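Give me the fold.
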Amino acid sequence: MGIIIKQSIRNATLTYLGIGLGLLSTIFLFPHILGAEKYGLTRSLIAITTISSQIITLGIPNTILKFVPTLEKDQGVRSQFFRRVISPSIFILTIYVTSFFFFESHWLSLYADSPLLEVYLWLVIPMVFASTTFSLFSAFIKASLDTVFATFLQDVLLRILILIFLVFYFFDIISFPHFMLGFVSAYLLNMLILLAYSLSQKYYLPSTSNAYSPFDLKETFTYSFFAFFSGFTMILVSNIDLIMVDMFEGLENAGIYALAMYMGTVITVPRKSLAKIIHPILTKSFNENNLAEIKRLYTQSSINQLLFSLIIYVGILTSLDDLYRLLPNEFSEGKPIIAILGLAYLFDLATGSNGQIIITSKYFRFDFISSLILMIGAVLLNYFLIPKYGLMGAAIATATSVGLYNLIKTIFVWFVLRIQPFKWHTLSIIVLGIVCFYLGELINIGGHPILSITIRSAIIGTTYLGIAYTFRLSDEFNTTIEELVVKLKSKN
């Protein structure tokens, strides 16, 4: 567990730094500088890019994470395997670009109520290319248990670059069209830096003609097909609502929803930092038939994700009024959306690494059926609920989809492996979160919103983590704190 803890901490640090930059730009800059409509444009482009990239990669990043760690530690062999396994993505990307321009009028007709998106829709092509390439090479590097640099690029550098272009636009150094070009160029630059890193660290060797990959590509592509649905399901559910809000309600409402959705998904950060390193460890455990280790990882992922995500959720809920005091009034409709989406993602985190356990096991084909049902359900729910209930309909559709999907996966893992992620500490953490929520509701600081948020968060956070440490609700959390104290004492 040592490598998981160390890299998870580094990933979490970078991810939270990225979240901080994201909050800075999301709360203080984007809404005030761009307004709801233009902000909605950037979020819609990202949502379309995310779904498109997931389709193009076709589950291949999961295949890389599963098979590369089992190859001999010869980067020539691994590089050859990588080149062969990404060939379908190259073909699909070519088809995607061709079909985009061939059916351009049809795609534009879908956004007839969003004239601004019609003008800039073509930008998804370079964004999809950059995102797809980054995803494939990032998985290849992570398969060698190097997860930190890609996290830095994705969560920190990308946000800094976009922030720079946003500031340039604010001071009229560049026009809005130039800002959009800079917005896209940030993704391309991130991709190029990752490519250079993979070459400089010799993770990827471009010339290895004599290398031999022992894997049957039919087996790997079959796995990719089924693994595709595991990743694509949550990507679709997390983005289709925004795209359909844009279609039915227009870019301005898409901007309002996107901001609320961003705040709601902030609580998923603990999963992101852990998931980047736990996947290859699960693969190794299944290869060794080590069910005890899998069960331990399953429980630890649940407890640790719930512990840290719940305090974030409570902190956001108790500071919603202050947060929206910092925003233009046009965004205020998003308050209840944050509560609904946050609760759904909280349940997702509490169920632990169920999806990763399924996809790295011999039962990975199960994801095909469950994911297919969920994707159809998510699209239908959004299709019927958004026209009737607007932004709340989108939030309810997404929350329902996420909740049902995780319930199905948790039941399946219990049925086939007889393991489940919960223990008595799970209930203790939930009770602690409820107590801290009511504590936060009692705290009324007044004054500037930032001061109010800071003081309330400090009181709630100290109380929550102090009690969690005292009652040892997470062994990993206590161990990390104790090791940190030892290091600090040794420096003195």
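Residues 2-422 form one domain.
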